[in-house]
């Protein structure tokens, strides 16, 4: 599939970065922080990210490859509003994802910052995601699991809804050459396309509406963050379920990603490098022996299913 014609702290907003300061053994009291770092900075960063994502969405409507994002905006600033469908969809997915982490952190009594969104270049999607900071250690496996899995599941639900809407707004066109960038088709996209649009002829292709492209990117980010590496969301979930065996899973995954990079998308080499820098193993929690219970184990299987249906080994295909 193609996008409409016209890439950590955390990408998509999915790394949780713990900062453990002035910690007591059993009880954690959230220190009062300056208003700027607690509220003003998150609001400023979100406003700037809103602008860059809006800009990126508008630039996707540009049909002249010789016009860069800056010239596009300066020449026609009114075109910025054409980015609303893409920006609203993508930020809706990312904000929901971050709120999943934030709400579960608060429910478990873990002092947590508001999400800090990271603006990006308008050439593609306009953001590098967001980070949140936990200022106390996670108390046990249940807290680790709940906080880690809440974001991907929440964002996934919104992304699926957006995908259905986006596919209904998309256009089926005859294939006119195979040049340009094509998007990988995870299992969920293939199934949703078959349900919403119907079977496609071998000579047909789908041009994704901006809402559909934002949903696709949301699914892509979800799959990346469910990789069972380090302090990615998938690392939190895998460590909560498997304990120290999580590291073995992460080590086994690295050569697989390198093969994917060799055969297809070179971005996997970057992810292997980032994994090496942030560490493959998840740091220990304070009460690792607490049982997760059947419900959480089932939700862990659900997270694995979400990873399977959103993952594409070659998400970007250049021809």
Structural class: mainly alpha
- State the total count of DSSP E strands: 7
Distance between the termini: 13 Å
Report the mean per-residue pLDDT as an integer.
Answer: 87
Radius of gyration: 20 Å
Shape estimate? globular
Question: What does the main sheet amount to?
Answer: 3 strands, mixed
- The domain count comes to 1
Relative strand content: 5-15%
Biggest β-sheet: strands ordered side by side in the sheet: 1-3-2
Question: Percent of residues in helical segments?
Answer: 40-55%
Number of helices: 10
Unreliable residue stretches: 4-27
SSE succession? EHHHEEHEEHEHHHHHE
TL;DR?
The protein has helices at 35-59, 69-75, 84-107, 141-169, 187-196, 210-225, 233-242, 245-263, 267-278, 294-310, and strands at residues 15-18, 116-119, 127-134, 171-174, 181-183, 204-207, 316-318. The chain is mainly alpha-helical and 319 residues long. The strands form three sheets. A three-stranded mixed beta sheet has the order 1-3-2. A two-stranded antiparallel sheet has the order 4-6. The protein has a two-stranded antiparallel ribbon with strand order 5-7.
């Amino acid at each position: 599939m193609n996008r409409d014609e016209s890439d950590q702290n955390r990408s998509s907003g999915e790394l949780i970065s713990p900062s453990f300061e002035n910690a007591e053994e059993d009880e954690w009291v959230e220190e009062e922080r300056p208003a700027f770092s607690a509220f003003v900075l998150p609001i400023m960063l979100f406003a700037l990210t809103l602008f860059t994502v809006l800009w990126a969405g508008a630039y996707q409507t540009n049909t002249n490859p010789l016009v860069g994002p800056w010239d596009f905006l300066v020449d026609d600033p009114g075109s910025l509003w054409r980015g609303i469908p893409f920006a609203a969809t993508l930020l809706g997915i990312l904000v929901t994802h971050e709120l999943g982490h934030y709400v579960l952190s608060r429910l478990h009594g873990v002092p947590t910052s508001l999400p800090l969104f990271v603006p990006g270049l308008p050439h593609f999607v306009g953001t590098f995601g967001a980070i949140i900071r936990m200022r106390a250690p996670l108390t046990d496996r249940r807290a680790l699991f709940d906080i880690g899995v809440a974001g991907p599941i929440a964002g996934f639900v919104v992304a699926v809804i957006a995908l259905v809407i986006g596919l209904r707004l998309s256009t089926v066109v005859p294939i006119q050459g195979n040049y340009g960038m094509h998007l990988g088709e995870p299992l969920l996209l293939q199934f949703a396309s078959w349900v919403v649009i119907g079977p496609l002829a071998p000579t047909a292709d789908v041009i994704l509406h901006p809402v559909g492209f934002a949903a696709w990117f949301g699914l892509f980010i979800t799959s990346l963050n469910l990789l069972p590496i380090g302090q990615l969301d998938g690392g939190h979930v895998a460590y909560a379920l498997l304990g120290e065996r999580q590291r073995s899973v992460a080590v086994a995954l690295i050569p697989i990603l390198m093969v994917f990079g060799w055969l297809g998308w070179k971005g996997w080499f970057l992810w292997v490098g980032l994994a090496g820098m942030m560490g493959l193993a998840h740091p220990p929690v304070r009460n690792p022996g607490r049982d997760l219970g059947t419900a959480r184990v089932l939700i862990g299987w659900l997270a694995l299913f979400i990873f399977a249906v959103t993952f594409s080994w070659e998400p970007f295909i250049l021809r």
